[in-house]
Amino acid sequence: MKCLLQMRMALESRALALTLLLALLSFVSAIPIDKSKLKEHNEVKDTKDEKQIEDTGLYYDRYLREVIDVLEKDTHFKQKLETADIEDIKNGRLSKELDFVSHHVRSKLDELKRQEVARLRMLIKAKMDAAQGKDLRMDHQSLLKQFEHLDHNNPHSFEPQDLEKLIKTATKDLENYDAARHEEFKRYEMLKEHERREFLKTLDEERRQEEEKRFLDMKQKHKDHPKVNHPGSKDQLQEVWEESDGLDPEQFEPKTFFKLH
């Protein structure tokens, strides 16, 4: 009984620490998670640099850190953060302060979100590739909806809802850390990059340079503000194919599109 009580107190203490640390944002890297779960899936890291910030283990760890880093640079948001209480964080009131940050900060957040959406599309594609030959039906919308740390219905700009989702999802994921789930997405990401690099090795120098340029151009595309396509046009359907379904825009097939929708 005493053991169970101690365990419960430890869990409650950890949950409070998570909320407080996320409320402060700048100390998100110190959030305590169950290290025993991480040990089963991660190799022992080099400890030469003791000041190195610890990875939270989340598959969107880099995105979380980059958003926090950008927000910390905005004077208005930093002041609001210092006076906010836990309830302001949990009920989304602090997220609404995003409307008052500088244009430069908002533009940088928009860029980060577009990069993250592009990365998630790549993860979906990798997951689909891994499922080939296993007689599995892949529901692209369901795959996209499992990424709860951003608003996938708006892939172009970072809005208050995105900040609210990021904070709430990170809090939930760290309180109920599922190492296997997060490591699965990390493996898909590494697999996709490995396949790309192996493919480049099969090309001659000229074609390799062309492929690298195409890859860099595609990455740059997601950093730029996209144009607004007319509803129902081919460009708009291709945008849904790419942004919502997570499919390769170069493989757009109208018949397949309408079967999915």
Blueprint of the fold:
Elements: H1 2-24, H2 35-41, H3 61-72, H4 75-83, H5 86-90, H6 103-131, H7 140-145, H8 160-175, H9 179-201, H10 205-221, H11 234-243, H12 254-260
Explain the overall architecture.
Residues 211-261 are annotated as: Disordered. It is a single chain. With 261 residues, this protein is an all-alpha fold. It has 3 domains: 60-176, no CATH class; 178-225; 230-260, no CATH class. The chain is 63% helix and 0% strand. It contains 12 helices and no strands. The chain has helices spanning 2-24, 35-41, 61-72, 75-83, 86-90, 103-131, 140-145, 160-175, 179-201, 205-221, 234-243, 254-260. It is globular. The model is unreliable at 1-21, 24-33, 40-53, 225-233 and 257-261 (pLDDT under 50).
Annotation keywords:
261 residues, mainly alpha, 12 helices, globular, disordered N terminus, disordered C terminus
Beta-strand percentage? under 5%
Largest sheet: none
In total, the number of strands is 0
Mean pLDDT: 68
Concise account of the structure shown:
Helix content is 63%, strand content 0%. With 261 residues, it is mainly alpha-helical.
